[in-house]
Amino acid sequence: MSLMTVKEVAEFLGVQDLRVLRLEREHLLVAKDKDSEGSPLFEKDAVEKYKELAKRLGGL
Length: 60
Description:
By secondary structure, this protein is an alpha+beta fold. Helices cover 50% and strands 13% of the residues. Helix 1 (6-13) crosses helix 2 (17-25).
């Protein structure tokens, strides 16, 4: 299981960090864990699945 930080997810999706936090808050991206500072960490597979779904629905 590979975990990604908010910054890594933002770069992968091509969006800003704030957008990733909003997606997590709205439960569109589910955080798997939190780091020592309390920031969400996301499972890489889940982020890839979200990107594919978003692409099918018309984009991010």
